[in-house]
Write a structure and sequence with these properties.
The chain is of the alpha+beta class and about 140 residues long. It has one domain: Aspartate Aminotransferase, domain 1, CATH 3.90.1150.200. It contains 4 helices and 6 strands, in the order ααββββαββα. The protein has a 6-stranded antiparallel beta sheet with strand order 1-2-3-4-6-5. A hairpin with a 5-residue loop joins strand 2 and strand 3. Helix 2 packs across helix 4 and helix 3 packs antiparallel against helix 4. The chain is globular, with a radius of gyration of 15 Å.
């Protein structure tokens, strides 16, 4: 049976951020920690070895595959900072148009630094993501 690699852990978020090599990335990680915590009202938790997640939800696909995931989160990676928002909502794409300098992958939004983005749009993306997931998975 398939097992999720990214699960909530008891690792310290602060310890993880303190081990980020780049001082600038570390500073941005603390800024993001404040923004995500303040916006969601959830306590930051480590998901797997490198994702800082906020809130959680249980999903179940038609295929029968199910699991738990963070509602939103981020990871200060070496190359770029990965931001995790819900996918599948058209409002996400609309908000990203005014977000600032970023690139997108299948599920992630990548930024170089917090100074490149509009923090108000970031907060809107976080709120939209949480609301969308609560609507999609109301039994959480």
């Amino acid at each position: 049976m398939y097992e999720l690699k990214t699960k909530e852990t008891e690792s310290s978020v602060i310890e993880f951020i303190e081990n980020v090599e780049s001082p600038k990335k570390r500073e941005d990680a603390y800024k993001l920690l404040d923004i995500f915590t303040e916006t969601t009202g959830y306590k930051a938790k480590m998901w797997g070895p490198s994702i800082i997640g906020f809130g959680s939800y249980h999903y179940k696909y038609e295929s029968g595959h199910e699991g738990d995931a963070a509602m939103v989160g981020f990871s200060p990676r070496k190359a770029k900072i990965s931001l995790y928002f819900a996918t599948g909502d058209t409002k996400r794409e609309e908000l990203l148009q005014d977000f600032g300098k970023h690139t997108t992958g299948k599920a992630c939004v990548y930024i170089n630094k917090v100074a490149d983005i509009d923090v108000d749009v970031l907060k809107a993306l976080i709120n939209q993501s949480v609301a969308f997931l609560k609507e999609m998975y109301p039994n959480n």
